[in-house]
Amino acid sequence: RAETPTNFIRQIIDRDLAEGKHDGKVVTRFPPEPNGYLHIGHAKSICLNFSIAESYGGVCHLRFDDTNPETESEEYVEAIQRDVAWLGWQWHGEVRYASDYFDLLHDCAVELVRLGLAYVDTQRPEEIARQRGDFTTPGQDSPFRERPVEESLALFARMRQGEFEEGEAVLRAKIDMRSPNMNMRDPILYRIRKKTHHQTGDKWCIYPMYDFTHPISDAVEGITHSLCTLEFEAHRPLYDWTLDKLEGFLASRDSIPARPRQYEFARLNLNYTVTSKRKLKQLVDEKYVSGWNDPRMPTISGLRRRGYTPAAIRRFCDMVGVARADSVVDMGMLESAVRDDLNATAPRAMCVLKPLKLVIENWPEGHVEMLSAPLHPQNEEMGSREVPMAREVLIDQADFQEQANKKFKRLVLGDEVRLRYGYVIRATEVIRDAAGEISEVRCTYDPETLGRNPEGRKVRGVIHWVSAEHSVPCEVRMYERLFTEASPDRMEEGVLSVVNPESLQVMSECRVEPALAGASPGSRFQFEREGYFCVDEDSEPERLVFNLTVGLRESF
Ligand code: ATP
Ligand code: MG
Ligand code: MG
């Protein structure tokens, strides 16, 4: 595996290790919330966390940040594990869950109350929100801020027993209602949710907030560098406050190898798509796409089904790099990463998307000749395949014109073209159906031209083809970008208003060379002159379905 380029986080780690911090160990974590499928933005975070662990001889944990039972599910838990593993990363030990620490988190909350650093607020949520103020106005203290410790302890116990309904009480940290940082204005630590949790069932009806859960989970796992996206920068003081106040308590419960530090990096934004689980879920729920793994989705599972390779996605993440400045990456960069990878690795094949029949009149009836074609033009080691040639062949409708000037490097009536890996043919006559459409083209072939140029003539070009009798029928799904606008997020009418109605075009009469019969879902090919394609999971033994992964050239 190529070494990942350095970045400001690696430089921080280099310095930490040089200063002898963390006993020379590096422990990172990837902490997804199981409320949707992972997308390309998550891939950046995954590659960052796992590649750092790998380069420094450390480990990376996979931890589900599962503190919100309403929106989370086991389906997402499973999909996320599949996607991380598919990208080629191995998390250290068992999968972890923030919910594994619910007992500890509860005890930490009780400890903060005991220390006089947290209190139960029994005001309505709207009232609490109103008192919080905003960036221009300082907050106001809750009337319950000075509630005696014993009273808060008793109320918190009753919250836990289910004696309050949702919204009737919360546990808040007592920090500073006048802080310029909104996150420090007595943030909520625990709230009531009477929901069954996918891991803990009905054991709990109070759930800890992310900002309280995260530092404690990091600390008990011995995370050294807790990497998150820039929007958490203003949460860092609360992260540190929580660990400062609980340091002694945590040390008495666990032996903590290192005090974790949070560092922030810029999210990945990609044009012509969205990287927000909420918006992607809306596309799924409202059936704009067939599911989370629709090949047009920027999800890891969608990209996988589209034919992307783990190597291409990792390479893309390296190209994007890690910085603190927000930017929008061009979709063309992701496409070129997979194109470069498949150009080197995908076996070649011929597939005719819109067939036009040619009858080669001087080819003997019933005669079949097996032609040999390399699987990769630049890599002999990949070997070759046999391509049958017979009297009737299919070419693409776009590769024939009755009349054309010299720029048309394909078949023209009265002129010659080479069938790739085969013979030079000449079109002699056009046959039409009752509606006047061309139904076939009569041709002749020159038997002296296999692997040899004809003498004294120049053919117009080389086109791909398949044998009519031997080729295999298939469906090809052609994709364009899912959105017609570069910044769907910025649309006033919402992202759904700019979904590209032509993002999927199904070609149902395609024919592929017989060597591909029985190809298994996920196999990738270059269809010569068309692009890179992969076998879709909807394929049946008698009818393959292919997805366009990416065209041969940048098309935008
Ligand atoms: P979304 O906004 O899509 O719901 P999220 O940040 O809420 O994303 P999480 O499941 O909490 O999703 O994310 C897990 C990790 O992935 C977090 O550390 C988060 O910062 C990171 N992450 C999420 N989206 C991106 C992105 N676009 N670029 C880089 N990292 C991301
Ligand atoms: Mg999150
Ligand atoms: Mg989110």
UniProtKB/TrEMBL annotation:
Domain Glutamyl/glutaminyl-tRNA synthetase class Ib anti-codon binding: 346-446
Catalytic activity, as annotated: tRNA(Gln) + L-glutamine + ATP = L-glutaminyl-tRNA(Gln) + AMP + diphosphate
Binding residue positions for ATP: 33-35, 39-45, 229, 267-268
Family: Belongs to the class-I aminoacyl-tRNA synthetase family.
Domain tRNA synthetases class I (E and Q) anti-codon binding: 462-536
Keyword Oxidoreductase: no
Motif segment ('KMSKS' region): 274-278
Subcellular location as annotated: Cytoplasm
Entry's EC annotation: 6.1.1.18
All residue ranges annotated as the Glutamyl/glutaminyl-tRNA synthetase class Ib catalytic domain in the record: 25-343
Main location: cytoplasm
Protein name: Glutamine--tRNA ligase
Gene: glnS
Highest taxon of source: Bacteria
Short sequence motif 'HIGH' region: positions: 32-42
InterPro entries named among the record's database cross-references: aa-tRNA-synth_I_CS, Gln-tRNA-synth, Gln/Glu-tRNA_Ligase, Gln_tRNA_ligase_bac, Glu/Gln-tRNA-synth, Glu/Gln-tRNA-synth_Ib_cat-dom, Glu/Gln-tRNA-synth_Ib_codon-bd, Glu_tRNA_lig_a-bdl
Residues annotated to bind L-glutamine: 65, 210
GO MF assignments: ligase activity
Keyword Cell inner membrane: no
Keywords on record: Aminoacyl-tRNA synthetase, ATP-binding, Cytoplasm, Ligase, Nucleotide-binding, Protein biosynthesis
Subunit field text: Monomer.
Annotated NCBIfam families: glnS (TIGR00440), PRK14703.1 (NF011291)
